[in-house]
Specification:
heterodimer, A: 162 residues, alpha+beta, Alpha-Beta Plaits, two-stranded antiparallel sheet, 5 helices, 32% helix, extended, B: 391 residues, alpha/beta, Aspartate Aminotransferase, domain 1, Aspartate Aminotransferase, domain 2, 2 domains, 7-stranded mixed β-sheet, 3-stranded antiparallel β-sheet, 12 strands, globular
Chain lengths: 162, 391
């Protein structure tokens, strides 16, 4: 449905848009928009709403790693059962099945490098089916989910122009 | 310091300073302003266009181009105009690349006007046409357009403004400052008058990609109007490229030749960096441009609904990125309204009379601003109106 898609495109850019505002922008009444959003949530098309935060700017410590995992697929379920056992860990933010030289890409967050090292050595590499792991630590975030971290773009226009 | 005013020509002295300039100074001195007073997109030029410009600089494209503009750019312009309005222009001698549409307007006035010739300018209007005509020793004749007509130019009103000296009709639609557009039947009604009175049209179509609910119709597409029209367009608004200063004029070879003569002696050519960027915009920019137009449309609806909610009357603008609401129920004139709104609520909008005397009683609000700023500005304007209506 076209309306669903329009709503999703707007929410993808800004999850804080109210149903009222979206309704005005798309020529629909607020109740209709609320109903569509509820349905999208029920259908798990909208899974949730996050905030993109630059923790470092606040002086918070924290480490994120991207781990390449080689997995021996299992008969009937392929990579799914290993993937599931990986994504159940709360410190795992993302799990993707990849084409190319390894199979799963896992994003893990922790307070220190030690946390992540412990997770990889004790939890991840010990799983049945996991053959090898390569851990890459993120050194600096430039852009994430469409937001630029270093210097947010500011309005450079003259305040009044013809 | 002794006055050197005696050296300034009487023609220049005759021109009134822009009303916008005065207001700009005022806004610049105020802190924390939310501005709906700008006349340009809030997007930065799409990255692929900026990147194409870097590449051209790396490759050493830093020299003059042909007076007419880069041949490949003129070819792309011809293809683009053919697609946009269905008219073919010869890249060789019917297209001139200029430093923005502003230069094209100036060149056309200087090419076409004899001293005392009259230029018909529908008002409210962008600020340059009147002074441009004056500088070319012509005389600007305002032709009023009205809120109740959604600022479409009416044939009967135009006829009343004609004189034996009438020579040029300026059509600038979608319109800055009103957001009004001309429908096919509105233009059709003008064609007879234009031909009968042997007028030539300057059609400034810089906002033509920014129309909502329907495509822009160009006067050039009516039979016999191609030769009678100098079509002007550019990249500033559709591709968010205001600072690059690239525009163009298309028209009859005789007129383009005249304009090129002035252009070659005064400007030489539009900057090559801008021309290279414009080339990239035409070749690969349509997707990004459509996205920006969708975005403007959302915000257009948002601001319009906001005005209705706070009790400001405003017709539905179908083009550009401006609204032109009435402030009559505030009991103030537009300049006082804008100054007080700025002082009390730190919201900048432009007084309607900066665009001609019949813009009095209205303000121009640009919705090329973030949703957050639009919503906040509306709230503040609502508060302001409430206070003054009940004062």
């Amino acid at each position: 449905m076209e309306l669903e898609k329009e709503i999703l495109k707007l929410l993808e850019q800004d999850a804080k848009l109210s149903a009222k505002t979206i309704g005005v922008m798309l020529d629909k009444d607020e109740e209709k928009i609320k109903a569509v959003i509820s349905k999208l949530e029920e259908d798990k098309i909208i899974l949730g709403y996050n905030t993109v935060i630059n923790w470092e700017r606040r002086g918070e410590e924290g480490v994120t790693a991207m781990i390449d995992v080689k997995v021996l697929p299992e008969r009937e379920v392929g990579f799914n059962s290993v993937a599931e056992r990986v994504y159940r860990f709360p410190e795992v933010r993302c799990v993707y099945l990849m084409s190319g030289t390894y199979d799963l890409s896992v994003v893990v967050c922790g307070n220190t490098m030690k946390d992540i090292a412990w997770f990889v050595s004790h939890k991840l590499s010990t799983l049945d089916g996991v053959q090898s792991t390569v851990t890459h630590f993120i050194l600096k975030r430039y852009k994430q989910d469409n937001f630029i971290f270093e210097e947010p773009e500011e309005d450079k226009r003259l305040v009044v122009s013809p | 310091m002794s006055s050197m005013n005696r050296f300034v020509s009487s023609v220049v002295k005759e021109i009134a300073p822009s009303g916008i300039r005065k207001f700009f100074d005022l806004v610049s001195q105020t802190e924390g302003v939310i501005s709906l007073g700008v006349g340009e997109p809030d997007f930065v030029t799409p990255w692929h266009i900026r990147e194409a410009c870097f590449y051209s600089l790396e490759k050493g494209y830093t020299m003059y181009t042909s007076n007419h503009g880069l041949p490949e750019l003129r070819e792309e312009i011809a293809a683009y105009e053919k697609k946009r309005i269905g008219i073919s222009y010869e890249p060789e001698n019917e297209i001139l690349v200029t430093v923005g549409v502003s230069e094209a307007v100036d060149l056309a006035f200087r090419t076409l006007l004899e001293p005392g010739d009259e230029v018909l300018v529908p008002e409210p209007s962008y600020v340059s046409y009147g002074p441009g005509a004056t500088l070319a020793y012509g005389k600007a004749v305002p032709v009023p357009t009205y809120d109740e007509d959604q600022y479409r130019l009416r044939a009967d009103v135009l006829e009343k403004c004609l004189s034996p000296r009438s020579k040029i009709l300026v059509l600038a639609y979608p319109n800055n400052p009103t957001g009004g557009i001309m429908y096919r039947e509105d233009l059709e009604a003008l064609v007879d008058i234009i031909v009968k009175n042997d007028l030539i049209v300057i059609s400034d179509e810089i906002y033509s990609e920014l129309t909502y609910n329907g495509k822009h119709v160009s006067i050039t597409s009516f039979p016999g109007m191609k030769d009678r029209t100098v079509l002007m367009n550019g990249f500033s608004k559709a591709y968010a490229m205001t600072g690059w200063r690239v525009g163009y004029a298309c028209g009859h070879p005789d007129i383009i030749a005249g304009m090129t003569k002035i252009h070659q002696y005064t400007i030489m050519c539009a900057p090559i960096m801008g021309q290279k960027a414009a080339l990239e915009a035409l070749r690969h920019g349509e997707g990004e441009m459509r996205k920006m137009v969708d975005d403007y449309n959302h915000r257009r609806k948002l601001i319009l609904s906001g005005f209705h909610e706070i009790g400001m009357e405003c017709f539905e603008p179908r083009g550009a990125f401006y609204c032109f609401p009435s402030i009559k129920n505030s009991g103030m004139n537009s300049e006082d309204f804008c100054e007080q709104l700025l002082m009390e609520e730190q919201v900048a909008v432009v007084p309607g009379n900066a665009f001609g005397s019949n813009g009095e009683g209205f303000i121009r609000c640009c919705y090329a601003a973030s949703i957050k700023n639009i919503e906040e500005a509306l709230e503040k304007m609502g508060r302001f109106l409430y206070r003054h209506r009940n004062a």
